[in-house]
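Supplementary Note 3. Input sequence used for the single-chain structure prediction.
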Amino acid sequence: MLHRESLFDRTFAPLRRALFGATTSEDPKAELSESGVEKLKLQIEDCLYRRGGEVSARAHAADLGHFYLKLGRDGRRRFLSLLATDYGVDRGRADAAMATLRDLEPGEDSSQAERQLRSDLVPRRIELFKQFNNLSQGVKFLVDMRAEIISMMPETQELRALNDDLRELLTSWFDVGFLNLQRITWDAPAALLEKLMAYEAVHEIRSWDDLKNRLDSDRRCFAFFHPSMPDEPLIFVEVALVSGMADNVQELLDLHALEGDPDKADTAIFYSISNAQAGLAQVSFGDFLIKRVVDELRSELPNLRTFATLSPVPGFRRWLDKLLAETDVAPWTLIQDGVLAEVAGVGSGSEALQILLARDNWHRDEAAVAAL
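The predicted structure, written as discrete structure tokens, is reproduced below.
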């Protein structure tokens, strides 16, 4: 199976080809020296001030992107830290714009001064991001850049402002009105199917047979795509079409289960939803995906009456363990204390539940499942 890290590395190869006409995947990773930082600043300034005109600025942006892709992780950290610390809001220009607005006479037209202030409050690095966006594969480049920023933030606090700026920009570019909903079938290109296997974040896709089962006639898989990233799913959901509610996801993922008739199904179970792009974290379109898919399924299969989910609740186990550690009473009245203690073999209330859940195979114990 293709892992996320290898897929991330492979993504950079077509980016290099698309952006710069040649791959540098075999080149050793460079680092960023002090003299390199000074040269980088000059190149950024050339790009921001469009020295030489639009065509020249575009070439400068391509060179910057090329340089970034050749850097190792420490070099990229220095590159990004430079953007974070040296290319924020120009405080001098912003202060001057505020003074101009403040000095206007009562009743005087303030629209021009307000526009100037808004413009001067935009961090200068935003213009650089927009220059990258104008390049082929530039949007994907920025999405992957933000993924690296997020991974570096725990030990590089100054990147937080950079992350916030890029998130706001990507949020506007990835408005749901710009996204295309597509059904993914077994006939999709192999490269796309491979990405589904890599990006699946809820129930690991263990083999091509497993994937084929999830794309069978009684299954559906839908994804959002962006026009600037037509080969990259942004988020995708997997759906099982069944008669009646399934009580566990293992039944839905069973490779040996009989194939159902989607036209006779009355229930659509959403059993997995995965965000495929780490660089789009906190850019929310999951709810919109579910609503769009429900509309698609209702149109295609009018017999569907029930829509449900078997997706896990992130963080639920941590919340439950904390709750059980703080109380002596099982947290739900539906749980019968005596039955729970009998199944666990010891204790009562929260103690019995803790003991039971600590067992690796509790979900295979019919008595335990019935008690819960």
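The first strand starts at residue 180 and ends at 183. The CA atoms of residues 145 and 279 lie 7 Å apart.
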